[in-house]
């Protein structure tokens, strides 16, 4: 009989799995990135086993020293990962046993890979969330910096992608700061549900050793333990929730990307992106393409796909752990990697945006953006809104034929649409007048934008 410690398959089986099956079931290629967290979790588990008297002091020191050495090997890129050992957990455990002998074999007492992997993934995701919160914040800062320089820069606000009313560019950018603020809240809130300890659930039912789960939780910085062992090893809702938040972040960035692409088109010409964020064409020498926003828009699809993958993975799984759950890692890791890369490049890109206020103003004039202001003026002089709406519609039609903006019509021309119009009308028909009139919390008046920026900055420093 072969010695079980020298082969990857156990005494339960008469033959090893075929190479095909081995490769099909192995996860080490992608779960090896959990290594540092796997070691952290094992050390906490070992300390607890020692405290409750299940593991001797000598075993604990051997395990601690062995794990420290393994961690160094991994960091130095010298660790040899083996597909024969299936996953990150078995690779590390085997290496530990090779280094320290029997003490290594005692580490897995009172534990299963089921609660082990759930713990590793939670530790990994918690660290990723902490990184992402900082990156979202930095992108918010970049947007606020740009908004600050454009508190009073007038641009057309659109509905149906048709010129609607004047807004300031700063106000427009702050809309994205708000979206990202909610995203940041979602990340921080979801972290609470990530930050619970599965270890102790063992395979599914708990363990017969006198373990102290709260001790392990506090060693690993968890807020508490997963209350139910079956739930602890089987649910991945915390990862799904994170991926949903990721989808929303990408959705918001995809919308902004779409706008950047439009604004950069010469027909708009509202902005320019720094050259380092654009690429040329191999055939058309004149081209400057907004590749970064396009890629971000495209990557949103893949992040949504990852969310669908996890939802579908979980659906119909009976309690408790099933191997299906091994498939949680690649979509989750890909989501984290994509988000980190996207947020980094995006903040940098927003800091390189060149604004072209003349083009924005030109577009405003062509779009009769102050038509609502004329209607509001008439209402304030006693006309019912519907009648005012009709009078202004006729004025716009007239101005369009005359190829003039409303503000360029003479008083006599304007009065032909309503005798209520007086000389003061021109104050209201200017872009500045229109902006300044929307002077309430959430409005686009420059002084409101200024106040909104101050509040947004305050939020960034306090959370
Ligand atoms: N590699 C596995 C995973 O990612 C670890 C848990 C395996 N547990 C088991 N009983 N096969 O889910």
Write the layout of secondary structure elements.
Layout: H1 19-25, H2 28-31, H3 35-51, H4 57-75, H5 88-100, H6 102-106, H7 113-148, E1 154-159, E2 162-168, H8 169-194, E3 196-197, H9 213-219, E4 224-225, H10 229-234, H11 237-264, E5 271-272, H12 291-314, H13 329-350, E6 354-355, H14 357-366, H15 371-380, H16 385-402, H17 411-415, H18 425-429, H19 431-437, H20 446-462
Parallel strand pairs: 3-4
Antiparallel strand pairs: 1-2, 5-6
Helix pairs in contact: 3-4, 3-7, 3-9, 4-5, 7-8, 7-13, 7-20, 8-11, 8-20, 11-12, 11-13, 12-13, 15-16
The structure holds arginine (ARG).
Enzyme class: lyase
Main location: cytoplasm
Pathway: Amino-acid biosynthesis; L-arginine biosynthesis; L-arginine from L-ornithine and carbamoyl phosphate: step 3/3
Explain what you see:
With 463 residues, the protein is mainly alpha-helical. The protein has three domains: 25-109, Fumarase C, Chain B, domain 1 (Orthogonal Bundle), CATH 1.10.275.10; 114-361, Up-down Bundle (Fumarase C, Chain A, domain 2); 365-458, Fumarase/aspartase (C-terminal domain) (Ribonucleotide Reductase Protein R1, domain 1, Orthogonal Bundle). The chain is 62% helix and 5% strand. The chain contains 20 helices and six strands. The protein has helices at residues 19-25, 28-31, 35-51, 57-75, 88-100, 102-106, 113-148, 169-194, 213-219, 229-234, 237-264, 291-314, 329-350, 357-366, 371-380, 385-402, 411-415, 425-429, 431-437, 446-462, and strands at residues 154-159, 162-168, 196-197, 224-225, 271-272, 354-355. The chain has a two-stranded antiparallel ribbon. Helix 4 (57-75) packs across helix 5. The protein is elongated, with a radius of gyration of 31 Å. The model is unreliable at 1-5 (pLDDT under 50). Arginine (ARG) binds next to helix 7.
């Amino acid at each position: 009989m072969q010695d079980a410690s020298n082969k990857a398959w156990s005494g339960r089986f008469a033959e090893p799995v075929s190479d095909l099956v081995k490769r099909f079931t192995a996860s080490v290629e992608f779960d090896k990135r959990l290594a540092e967290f796997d070691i952290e979790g094992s050390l906490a588990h070992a300390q607890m086993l020692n405290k409750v008297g299940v593991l001797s002091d000598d075993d604990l020191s051997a395990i601690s020293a062995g794990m420290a050495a393994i961690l160094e090997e991994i960091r130095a890129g010298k660790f040899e990962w083996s597909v024969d050992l299936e996953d990150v957990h078995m690779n590390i455990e085997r290496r530990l046993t090779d280094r320290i002998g029997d003490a290594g074999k005692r580490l897995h007492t009172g534990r299963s890979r089921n609660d082990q992997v759930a713990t590793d993934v939670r530790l990994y995701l918690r660290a990723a969330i902490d990184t992402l919160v900082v990156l979202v914040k930095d992108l918010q800062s970049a947007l606020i910096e740009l908004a600050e320089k454009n508190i009073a820069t007038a641009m057309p606000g659109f509905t149906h992608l048709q010129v609607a009313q004047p807004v300031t560019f700063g106000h427009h950018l702050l809309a994205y700061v708000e979206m990202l603020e909610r995203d940041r809240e979602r990340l921080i809130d979801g972290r609470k549900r990530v930050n619970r300890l599965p270890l102790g659930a063992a395979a599914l039912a708990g363990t017969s050793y006198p373990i102290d789960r709260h001790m392990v939780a506090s060693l690993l910085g968890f807020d508490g333990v997963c209350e139910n062992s079956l739930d602890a090893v089987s649910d991945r809702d915390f990862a799904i929730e994170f991926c949903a938040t990721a989808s929303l972040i990408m959705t918001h960035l995809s919308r902004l990307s779409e706008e950047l692409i439009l604004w950069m088109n010469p027909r708009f010409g509202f902005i320019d992106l720094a050259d380092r964020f654009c690429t040329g064409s191999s055939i058309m020498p004149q081209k400057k393409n907004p590749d970064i926003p396009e890629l971000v828009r495209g990557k949103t699809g893949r992040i949504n796909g990852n969310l669908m993958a996890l939802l579908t993975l979980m659906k119909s799984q009976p309690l408790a752990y099933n191997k299906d759950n091994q498939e949680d890692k690649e979509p989750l890791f890909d989501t984290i990697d994509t988000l980190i890369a996207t947020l980094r490049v995006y903040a940098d890109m927003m800091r390189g945006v060149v604004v072209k206020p003349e083009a924005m103003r030109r577009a405003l004039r062509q779009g009769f953006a102050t038509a609502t202001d004329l209607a509001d003026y008439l209402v304030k002089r006693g006309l019912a809104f519907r009648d005012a709406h009709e009078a202004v519609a006729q004025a716009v039609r007239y101005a369009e034929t005359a190829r003039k903006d409303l503000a360029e019509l003479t008083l006599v021309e304007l009065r032909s649409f309503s005798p209520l119009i007086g000389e003061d009308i021109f104050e209201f028909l200017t872009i500045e007048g229109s902006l300044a009139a929307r002077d309430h919390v959430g409005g686009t008046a420059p002084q409101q934008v200024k106040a909104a920026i101050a509040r947004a900055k305050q939020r960034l420093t306090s959370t």
